[in-house]
Description:
The chain has about 375 residues and is of the alpha/beta class. It folds into 2 domains: about 25-250, Aspartate Aminotransferase, domain 2, CATH 3.40.640; about 255-380, Aspartate Aminotransferase, domain 1 (Alpha-Beta Complex), CATH 3.90.1150. It is about 40% helix and about 15% strand. It is built from 11 helices and 15 strands. The protein has helices at about 20-40, 45-60, 70-80, 100-105, 130, 150-160, 215-225, 245-275, 310-315, 345-355, 365-380; strands at about 65-70, 90-95, 110-115, 135-140, 165-170, 175-180, 180, 190-195, 205-210, 230, 235, 280-285, 290, 300, 355-360. The strands form 4 sheets. It has a 7-stranded mixed β-sheet with strand order 1-9-8-5-4-2-3, with helices on both faces. The protein has a 3-stranded antiparallel β-sheet with strand order 7-6-13, with no helix packed on it. Strands 12-14-15 form a 3-stranded antiparallel β-sheet. The model has no long low-confidence stretch (mean pLDDT about 95). The structure holds pyridoxal-5'-phosphate. The site of pyridoxal-5'-phosphate (PLP) has 14 residues, from helix 3 and helix 4.
Amino acid sequence: MPLDPAMNTTELKPIQPVDLAAERAQLGPALEDAVLRVLRSGAYVLGPEVQAFETEFAAYQRTKHAVAVATGTDALLLGLRALGVQHGDEVITTPFTFFASAGSIAWMGAVPKFVDVDPETALMLEDQVASAIGPRTKAVMPVHLYGQLCDMNKLSALCKQRGLKLIEDSAQAHGAERDGYRSGEKGDCAAFSFYPTKNLGAAGEGGAVLSNDGEVACHVARLRDHGSVAKYHHGEIGTNSRLQGIQGAVLRVKLPHLERWNERRRQIAARYTAAFQSSDKVRPLTVLPGSKPCFHQYTARLVNGKPRDTVLAAMAAEKISVAVHYPKPVHLQEAARPWGVGPGDFPNAERLAQEVVCLPVHPFLSDADVDRVAEALLRHA
Ligand SMILES: Cc1ncc(COP(=O)(O)O)c(C=O)c1O
């Protein structure tokens, strides 16, 4: 029911992008037991909980190997290194993503080479990847933005044909499927983040590299431990990026719930999409045929209506948090200047950055919450 504009909003329940308190309430004792188990065991770094989580998460993603690391960014860095990306190489990715995708390429001394995104899905325009390949191209990094998978069959065929490595940025894609495959199955490796707000989040930072290639997985495992081949014997330069035992234990408690949580996210997404069906101002991004996104974000474009900032302020006044992922594409960031990119280069990314809004889609929302968000957005757009 539409809100009376004169209504006292102090009565309204805040609707947030995530509800970690609800998650803790659901899992409470199991989470506390898991943390205590690690505290009592003293296995604070890696250890049996992390090892068990690696096995369980690899099985969930239908991938042979998982190597747990300290952050999603480290998963990208160590994945790139394990695939042989070096100083001076180029890696093709998109400019409409969290900065870490391109930033990790540059941190390796390589150069991100961008292809634009599809304005309907915000995913890499796979058909433009071939023409972006040059003599220095070493790898392609698709980003499964908002939890919808890129066309990995197409990208993996192209990479095989052109002798390139394929690393998936799967930081937002836990459990997402497309044409029956999951992230990690098709690429040479896939990098996941377990930042607390992710569909599968740790009680702190965390990440993992998944691969069907045992050599890649073993290489990442060495790199996360200073290139160690045996205690105090270092075969190459690596870093310290070992997942903490407590994070492994927490992730193990949450993993069995992920499928159900993702299903609830899909129900919420379908409810939003139905609500916006006849709107000419709120246009949800497209779910592709054969795609089963995990809806890390539910994203719509605001078109033909009021300025986005005005809409966001009106939603905030009704205690509804609406996020913008991401307000400035990577190629327009100050840090991107050395890559020779600038305004006008990737028009779809630039337009999406101005139009997108991400609505709360966490699995603890009720249908009434979802209806309240949708109704408010339609009223303010
Ligand atoms: C698309 C994408 N790539 C990489 C990362 C980096 O992950 P982390 O924050 O765990 O380092 C994130 C995290 O938000 C992300 O959304």
